[in-house]
Sequence to fold (342 residues):
Amino acid sequence: MLFTFHGLDGRAAATHAALTTGFALAISGRPAIVLRIAGPNDGVARLPRTMPEGLTFVERTASAHGFSADDLGDMLGDGDPQACDVVLDLPLHLVNDSDLSALADLSILVVGPGALEERLAASAIDRLNSEGLRQPFWLLGCGRSGGGPDAKRFERSMRSLLGCKAHDPSVRCSFLPVTLAAPSRSEADALADGCPQPKTVRQGVLLLAAVEVAASNPHAARLDQDAFVEALGLGERTLVSADQRRLSERLRDLADDLETLEEGGPSPEDLDDAPVMRGWSFQVGRTRVIAGHVVDHPTIPSGRAALTSDVYATDGRTWARTLSRLYKLDSPAVAMRPAGLQ
Fold:
């Protein structure tokens, strides 16, 4: 198969996504080639050509006339694109190249974290739509943590910027239900050296599964979640978006949310994406936590009894922000007065 990742602003996020996908292919026993095509003003990654686990990295500068099947063969050299999977890391303008559109099984636009990156991506998508897209593409949020909930927040934010709703046919793009977290320095060094750490491998497996399911129906408005779970070999759909954040990432997310909560509490959209706690009660010891039964939690099957991490902010009745995430509070275990934890 042949997948293309397109990026903005130096394209580091797209290169990260392409390499992570390439390693997932190679580690699963499928030889893969990651081909990075640099534009005239792009930086050069200078990664080793031969990496462990059957992955080859090739880097070339884009030719002036664009991209063609012949160019692909020349750039891959001895690599046979028919005998292995190919992952392309390309400048954004090539997303509308006719030769490339005919070759690619799926095109993915990688968007970095933050409002500025999302605005830049939305502007680029508007331009591509005005030029007449030859094929649909999928959006992937990078530099984000939190698994499934962050993917939903990314989609909601991008759709707002694009001025479109969930199934708007005027915007030919869909959203992958995973996000790619920003690597730590050690994870990035290991990835560049060809020896990805376990967290990077796990992210790659999730991303590869999502990309392959999307490639089976690139015109779909949404990814088939049942097919996604089947591709991962998991029995519980809730495990698809498991949260693997480090403590430093959780604390950064918590600080961002506390800043927002000081302005008037969580938004209705954030509460819609939050897991629900039923039959809940505050447990006070050395720290304050909530006990109850969770629904739609990213890592715990629905209906299971659970204890949250430390509670940092709550109105005592309808929501609570713990170290890990926001919860929507449903029915309490017993009638109780508001705890007033702010």
About this structure: The chain has ten helices and 14 strands. Residues 2-241 form a domain with the Rossmann fold fold (CATH 3.40.50.300).
